[in-house]
Please model this.
Amino acid sequence: MALTTPLDVDAIRADFPLLSRTVHDTPIVYLDSAATSQKPTAVLDAMDAYYRTVNANVHRGVYFIAEQATNDLEAAREKVRRFINASSVSEVIFTKNATESLNLIVQSWGRANLAAGDVVVLSHMEHHANIVPWHMLVAERGIELRWIPLTPDGRLDLSDLDALLDGAKVLSVTAMSNVLGTLNPVRQLTDAARAAGAISIIDGCQSVPHTATDVQALGADFVAFSGHKLCGPTGVGVLWGREELLTAMPPFIGGGEMIRDVRLDGFTCNDLPWKFEAGTPAIAEIIGLGAAVDYLTGIGMDAIRAHEHMLTEYTLRTLADRFGPDIAIHGPSDPDLRGGVFSFAFKDLHPHDISQILDQHAVCVRAGHHCAKPLMKLMGVGATARASVYLYNTTADIDALADALESAGAFFAF
Amino acid sequence: MALTTPLDVDAIRADFPLLSRTVHDTPIVYLDSAATSQKPTAVLDAMDAYYRTVNANVHRGVYFIAEQATNDLEAAREKVRRFINASSVSEVIFTKNATESLNLIVQSWGRANLAAGDVVVLSHMEHHANIVPWHMLVAERGIELRWIPLTPDGRLDLSDLDALLDGAKVLSVTAMSNVLGTLNPVRQLTDAARAAGAISIIDGCQSVPHTATDVQALGADFVAFSGHKLCGPTGVGVLWGREELLTAMPPFIGGGEMIRDVRLDGFTCNDLPWKFEAGTPAIAEIIGLGAAVDYLTGIGMDAIRAHEHMLTEYTLRTLADRFGPDIAIHGPSDPDLRGGVFSFAFKDLHPHDISQILDQHAVCVRAGHHCAKPLMKLMGVGATARASVYLYNTTADIDALADALESAGAFFAF
Amino acid sequence: MPGLEDLYREIILDHYRNPRNRGELDSPPAHRVEGFNPLCGDEIVVYLDLDDERRITDIRIGGQGCSISQSSASMMSAAVKGHTVEEVGDLTRAFKAMMSIHESSLGGEAAEPVELPDVKLGDLEALRGVVKFPVRIKCATLAWNTLAQGIDEALA
Amino acid sequence: MPGLEDLYREIILDHYRNPRNRGELDSPPAHRVEGFNPLCGDEIVVYLDLDDERRITDIRIGGQGCSISQSSASMMSAAVKGHTVEEVGDLTRAFKAMMSIHESSLGGEAAEPVELPDVKLGDLEALRGVVKFPVRIKCATLAWNTLAQGIDEALA
Ligand SMILES: Cc1ncc(COP(=O)(O)O)c(C=O)c1O
Ligand SMILES: Cc1ncc(COP(=O)(O)O)c(C=O)c1O
Model:
């Protein structure tokens, strides 16, 4: 059966300079986009042009390039607003990464609203970024954490959701697992949270880069994601929040930009979104992120999802065909229920050894706990090998992965 | 009297692409480096090369480019360590900007060590980044703030320092004022703090880019600064701290990278410096910062200080010669006591209007409160106009400033 | 490229040199409200007397700021004195509409065509050139935002 | 370019396939200590029996990890059993010195020439190739760091 894609992947690959490099004299096969994506020339050029012709500090200068820098930064905010369909730019807060976005919620909203005994519901498939900040609040405040369990095929087990949410103040879950690839039923979750009187927080790190996102349709109160996983630069993340909640929240980091007035005896906060953007922002990176969402929008998020759906089907089938019982791919087997992230166990090889041997074939996959140690424990493993795809990957990349796995199997055969 | 510089400024200017642009058909005269510096090609190329040939997430990948990204990032840490003469890379923590560095100290060390009634000593010339985080702790904890007053010429008035420090837990001051240009006697301050049993925090934003820094010789416990003011990119700052203090401090932001283990019921922290670097770091920006300190080291920090000393002398003399009593330059008049930051009042023109008219002559100066509203209040003004220089500025830039001021005076003459 | 003459019209400079209604009113009975421009440090204080018919019977302006914020406050004080809060509301909307093309695009939002209230702006028209200098828009609107807040508070 | 044969020497694969001293000891009396590699999730458990003469009379290894960390732990267990903690200290320093060129440059510090204790590394020499794969150095040193911690704790 032939699989088709709506993307002109050859043209797309030409936009990503790194994809034309070699490793050990072999063209690189980059299958680690769940960790970080490659960057198109359009993004690199936007940042370079900024530094070469505009660079000035923002929001305070009257002179021409300072005004232009401010306009460019705020234009990028508007691009991100449109990309996630936020109702206002006041709701789009730039952070340094999704981890900071999540910590901002916990430390600002959480400290202001949660007391000893209050319940926060997480899931067993969360990334450390959506666990450790809550652990810190447990230590500080004595809140209680509850955990949504998983089904054997790596989906959220929602059979007791209402009981878990009973009396809860917060539900915080990932839209897509960075280990299992599972796409969670976000709307169902946020509806259940609202019905229970809890706010809901969505970790969009793995979903926003790969599927069209409408924060209003998601029904959540907060959504966090990182720029570097969606073709943008490092050093910039996003927190979207409902204006009403953001307005009521105390500040997180204090300093310049976030104030209206400062006196010896106190200060007053600036308006949203700047209230949460203390200090000189990541100006070039925010502009780069704006270029990234323009790039992705130009290609079309639905087309990207369709392409990755095709690759998911191809990957699951190819690996099963070639390795049968020697490979076990974690997570749901239905491509409709998952994104293009494939954690697998292969023979009795340790993930570190798999990745090492794949590297000799220029195939880049991640090996480790993927910042999801509680999930690893639940799965009964210390680590997995993980391949993940994005708009620039092809079925040939998957074939290269399979070929490299075959030699890994041979190398360690004993 | 001729003034000399040890720098080949023509060659240096050629390294900074933005300096060759025009504004309103006039070559730009950039005099706002205290807000952010321009970037040399070496820095832009380092980041671009990273994205085009290395880009991968760090600290977790076995494959070749992930290993290289990790090496490049940690090599940049070593460059910064050497630049400030820290005793170990464990003491060099990357943040998003100096504002985050200062908040990290307040929220981690401060929350762990300060209780109601504890005294923190600041000065009247602090930037909001070194005021607002403390105000937040006042509101949360009931600590008490004391303020070192200023002399009429804008230096710290240290006549009552011992009384101010009596019983204090913290002294937190800037090494150089971003408004007055004043270079503070850091060693004297840290010695006094230590004698009083207080830790000392130095805001190095304005000093680290312009003078050789040896954190061990400063005698401080923490030093904070930003990359973007020292020829580096936006999106990266540094916190240096003494290892003993950093080791004892609780984490600030929780998530990936900063953990050793995470379980459903808690977590343990990673070693320094990663304990304070949760989430995907600003990889490209850190590498860019490494290239920036290489660039500055190549030119020589002492030579840069000598060049700026010469420009300071030239600026003070030129503006006084040309405008006499029509101009008042705030801060010390001895170039040995100050850096190249010149806030001034000119006739009865408002700083905003000065900056606007200077912009028509392509002269970029800042107008506003410079994130130092308590200082503005002390000075009895709402705002100042501020010109500031760096290694790439020349006496011709100062002449252009003076010419443009002359037309501003003429325009508003009435 | 917009020139200085677009920004600094003669009438603006006149209001800057000779600000109208500068000073204070006893408060109470007058309502006093402060406004800040967080970006540049400009501060304005508006003193308002409202009569029972919701008419601004007197107004005074204090504070400090640049030529644009000072002249805008001065012109505003002259334009609103003796008018009802409804009339002032229309004038405020008309003025902000004149400014809004850039104010909103600064904030990044799509520039929607705005239906102007049928109001004569008079001298205030002189500030139209400010939209070409987006950073200065907040200087021009500071007085108006502060007045609106003061009216809200006085009527609350 | 370093090849796989530099990393995966035959003797390493042998220890990986047939780990020595795998298992547990009753604790107490044995001392039990856990080590983590925070980067990859590898975990090791070392069980130690020390006699009154500070000699390691028995050792067992538990946990999970890659071929490098497992074989390093296995070789270590064979190398230290029957030796005093002083001898083990020398061996640890010698082993880490062999690894340290890259471990320290990973951390970014200058590579100082290290004075090796006069110790025969024997089979452990096979791990020398690991330094060409800096990420794997922490795999090779995990068991040793954990053992050192266990000895410290047992003697404390
Ligand atoms: C003295 C001083 N402290 C702190 C800061 C804050 O730096 P950043 O905005 O990069 O966080 C600045 C610069 O704006 C400064 O000049
Ligand atoms: C699901 C998920 N959440 C959070 C994060 C943290 O993102 P960052 O490291 O960019 O802060 C990641 C990526 O590492 C992720 O995959």
